[in-house]
Amino acid sequence: MTAPDGRGAGRSFLSGKGRPTPFSYIAAIGRPFRASGTAAVPVQRESAAPDEALARAIAQGQALEREGQRDAARRLYERALRDGTAKSTLHAAQLLRLVARTYMLDGNYAASADCAQVALTASEAAADEGGRGHAINILAIIEWKQGNLDEAQRLYLLARGSAHRAGEARLAAMTAS
C-alpha cells in the first residue's frame, strides 16, 4: 500500500507483518473514507451508540491488558476493527486509541503515534471533541515519554481544551498542569 504522497506505507497488521501504518488502519476501519491529502475523512457521520459486541470486545481487551497480555488485547481490538464490530467512525477511533495505548505501553512509540493520529483524524471528521482530546492526550504522553517536554505541554493543553469543550471531566483532570 502506498501513501497518497507516494511514500511506501509499509506492511500492515492486516497481513500480520511489520508495524501498522495510518493507512492500514484506515483501510481496516472499512467505512466509506475518502482521501484528503494525507488524511482521511468519513463520507458520513455515524451513530456513536455503543452496542453489546463492541462493549464486550473492549471489556475483554481491557481485561487482557490488566493481565499484562497487551499483544492479545491489541489483536482483539484490531479484529474488532476488521470484522465490523466497530459500527461507526467513533467506535473505530475508540478502538484505535486502545491499540495506540497498547503500543505505547510496549514502548513502540512510532506505532502508537500512528494509531493515535488516525484516531485523531477519525474523531475530528466525526466531530467528536472528546475523542479528539483523548487521541491528542496519547500523542502528548508519547512526546513526554520521549523527553520532548515542550511539545508534550502544547499537546496536553490542546487535549485539555478538547476535554473542556466536550465536558470530559476525567480527561480534563488527566491533562491538568
Walk me through the structure:
This protein has helices at 22-29, 52-66, 70-82, 89-105, 109-125, 129-145, 149-166, 169-174, and strands at 33-36, 39-42. The protein has 177 residues and is mainly alpha-helical. A two-stranded antiparallel sheet has the order 1-2. It is built from eight helices and two strands. Strand 1 (33-36) and strand 2 (39-42) form a beta hairpin. The chain is globular, with a radius of gyration of 15 Å. The chain is 63% helix and 5% strand.
Strand and helix map with partners:
Elements: H1 22-29, E1 33-36, E2 39-42, H2 52-66, H3 70-82, H4 89-105, H5 109-125, H6 129-145, H7 149-166, H8 169-174
Antiparallel strand pairs: 1-2
Radius of gyration in whole Å, from Cα?
A: 15 Å
The helix content, as a percent range, equals: 55-70%
The largest sheet, given as strand count, sense and whether it forms a barrel, is: 2 strands, antiparallel
The global form is globular
Query: Structural class of the helices, strands and pairings?
Result: mainly alpha
> What is the strand tally?
2
Order of helices and strands: HEEHHHHHHH
Count the helices. How many? 8
Unreliable residue runs: 1-19, 29-46
Beta-strand percent range = under 5%
Q: How far apart are the termini?
A: 41 Å
Give me the side-by-side strand order of the main sheet.
1-2
Mean pLDDT: 79
Which descriptors apply to this entry?
two-stranded antiparallel sheet; globular; mainly alpha; disordered N terminus
Summarize the structure.
This protein has 177 residues and is mainly α. The chain has eight helices and two strands.
